[in-house]
Amino acid sequence: MPGDFINALARRIVSAGTHASVIQPAIADLQFEARTRSTWLMAQSYLGAWTAVCGGVLHDIGITIQHPGFIDEARTATVLVGMQAVYYGGMLSLTVAHLPRVHGAAILRLALLAVIASAVPVVALMLPKRDMTDTRAQQPQDDIG
Amino acid sequence: MDEQRLPSVSPTESLILDLLEHGERFGLELVDASKGRLKRGSVYVTLSRMEAKGFVESRQEERAPGAIGLPRRMYRPTAYGLKVRDAYQLLREALRLRPADAH
Prior knowledge:
heterodimer; A: mainly alpha; B: mainly alpha; 3 strands
């Protein structure tokens, strides 16, 4: 079926909720319009489906940022990366001080390695779960008639 | 102090609620009915946000046995969504008043 590839790809990169509410309806439209066999409509539908995937990714990022715990998690991650960077930076300085001749480019490469070694484990550990739910602005509806 | 967040309706959300007021519609029908104001790629993100806010409800279309392809999703407004939209329209009209007109 048309759109199966986009659907499978999107399933891997967006949350389950976003996939069900944003991507699947766009793919369903694409498959519905495939029956019309109009090249122009199909091109529009493919463009719409790819745009929906991009929109879905941005939607997930928006949900993550607006999550109540995001600021605390970002602060914790920054402190952890900073502490590790200081540790690796210190080790790097001691290593460089004991080497007879070190080029500036080599120091830069080692510094970059230190930053990556500091950030990657923290970011990997703190990545949000893919089954996140939209917690924005749930309004009470009990008194609406 | 724990202050409750007030609901907000963007002009696009208001347009969608207007288009849905007279019955259930598919996303594509909304795009066609909006005469270019809604885009295929972004309409479902907006509808998803509106569903999270409680402004619209959705369900999958009923399919005939043996139908191929994913089922499409139909949307309808909630009473809450229409009420918030009406309140926002009143607010916009009030804010459009000039001081001399308010007396």
